[in-house]
Design a protein that fits this description.
Blueprint lengths: L7 H39 L2 H8 L1 H4 L11 H11 L3 E6 L8 E7 L2 E7 L6 E6 L4 H9 L10 H21 L18 H26 L6 H9 L16 E5 H4 L10 E3 L11 H11 L6 E3 L7 E6 L8 E6 L5 E6 L5 H13 L5 H29 L14 H17 L1 H28 L1
Antiparallel strand pairs: 1-2, 1-7, 2-3, 3-4, 5-6, 7-8, 8-9, 9-10
Helix pairs in contact: 1-5, 1-6, 1-12, 1-13, 6-7, 7-11, 7-12, 13-14
């Protein structure tokens, strides 16, 4: 007598769900793999941006320490303007002994960064503004070099990475197999080796990939920009309840200099012009020093009669983040904003961004994320090799459709919820569904023709 397996329908349903998840895990990987490799390589280097910049641009950024006394900021700015005639718009003080000051000068040909020895005001060198190797890596990381619309792909890649993690964990989940859970079987010549390497690497790096995708979302062009406006006072940029009793200009802080996510929408106040003599940069720096800004802060210089001196600093220690606007005539602080003034959402976002770029936990933060970046590259390469070994000759090798379409519809419904939260991801999902439908019809047509 033949004994049938109990609940055969349940086994078929499980197989259908498995095929549905596998199919969309494949599509997610197909979309995300190139971005994962590019973002991991550039992101891994950017973690050590200060160390790499100070090494690569040592001729510009490093000088011999000559005591504890430096020349006044105005002397450094004067030296910079003598080397590059124009208008000084920003002064960045050295963040440590033995480093140069950086003065940004606006010229008819564009902005230029002039590096000045703080001990004797000698000009060390000149570079295009944001022309360091790490600014190049940062722009590569955000895909700015690939056209106007390429940065929008970051949001799509991040959203599909979340899908990739979710489906990957489901596929990895132990189902009585003897290997490929935390161990790798066979050797590189066999597909099972690459399958196991992919699965084991994936489960260990999943939480980091998920964190990097989610924490990177606030910088995206569509969802991130709209969420920023919502989280930061409906486009005013300051936390609700913060009293601002000074005139505000029409300029945003991000238009003046690099700022934190929470202050991208922040409006800059105005000085009360009244025929007074403006204070000097030296006096502004002295005032900011006495207010206790963290060393290495940036000073944006006034650009009009109503402009202000803006001191800003975003060090590794989040509690030391600070922006202070000074009246250019009296030196009076018009607005003094620190991390403690941020709202709850902004604080969590800033913590995520700070950790994402390797600052929150010091060197261990950088090492752990560098290891995660290396693992993500391994994950991507092993997926490509595994697919190449599995795919039939002359075929894309898409995993089979589930026998029951209900399993696929259920998965797509879950994905649709994510698409509603992240609009660009939702749009790309619709495109992929259309392409998948077209692919199925083409395969069916080929089979019918062959018969």
């Amino acid at each position: 007598m033949i004994v049938q397996a109990p609940f055969p329908c349940i086994e078929k349903i499980r197989a259908d769900i498995y095929h549905a998840v596998w199919r969309w895990h494949f599509y997610a990987g197909l979309l995300v793999l190139p971005f994962m490799i590019t973002l991991s390589l550039s992101g891994g280097m950017y973690l050590f941006r200060t160390e790499i910049d100070n090494w690569y641009h040592a001729d510009l950024k490093r000088v011999a320490v000559a005591g504890s006394v430096t020349v006044p900021p105005t002397a450094m700015v004067a030296a910079a303007l003598e080397a590059v005639p124009g208008r000084a718009i920003q002064f960045i003080q050295p963040s440590a002994p033995g480093l140069t000051a950086e003065i940004t000068v606006a010229t008819d040909q564009g902005r230029v960064a002039v590096y000045v020895n703080p001990y004797n005001a000698a000009v060390q060198g000149i570079l295009a503004d944001r022309g360091t190797i790490m600014w190049t890596i940062r722009k590569l990381h955000s895909l700015e070099y690939f056209g106007k619309y390429a940065p929008y792909l970051i949001e799509i890649a991040a959203g599909w990475s979340i899908l990739l993690v979710g489906t990957g964990v489901w596929l990895w989940w132990p189902r009585a197999q003897k290997g490929g859970i935390i161990t790798v079987r066979s050797n590189p010549r066999r597909r099972v080796f690459w399958r196991d390497l992919h699965a084991v690497t994936g489960i260990f790096v999943a939480i980091f990939l998920l964190f990097l995708a989610v924490s990177g979302m606030p910088w995206s062009r569509v969802w991130g920009a709209k969420f920023n406006e919502l989280a930061n006072g409906h486009n005013y940029g300051y936390p609700d309840g913060l009293m601002i009793n000074v005139p505000m200009s029409g300029h945003k802080l991000e238009d003046m200099s690099t700022t934190s996510w929470s202050l991208m929408q922040a409006m800059v106040p105005e000085s009360a012009a009244g025929g007074m003599q403006p204070i000097t940069l030296d006096q502004a720096v002295d005032k900011l020093d006495r207010l206790g800004l963290h060393v290495g802060y940036t000073v944006a210089l006034p650009d009009s009669n109503e402009g202000v001196y803006t001191g800003s600093v975003y060090p590794d220690d989040l509690s030391q983040q600070r922006v202070v606007h000074l009246d250019q005539y009296t030196g009076t602080p018009l607005l003094d904003l620190s991390y403690t003034d941020y709202g709850v959402i902004a604080k969590w976002i800033e913590w995520g961004v700070n950790t994402h770029i390797g600052q929150t936990f010091g060197l261990i933060n950088k090492i752990v994320l560098l290891a995660a970046c290396v693992a993500i590259v391994v994950l991507a390469l092993s997926a490509a090799i595994m697919w190449w070994k599995r795919r039939p000759s002359g075929s894309l090798g898409v995993p089979p459709m589930p026998a029951r379409k209900a399993a696929l519809r259920g998965l797509l419904a879950i994905l649709g919820i994510g698409g509603l939260i992240f609009p660009l991801v939702g749009a790309s999902l619709m495109v992929m569904i259309a392409l998948d439908t077209l692919y199925v019809r083409l395969i069916s047509s080929r089979i019918s023709t062959a018969v």
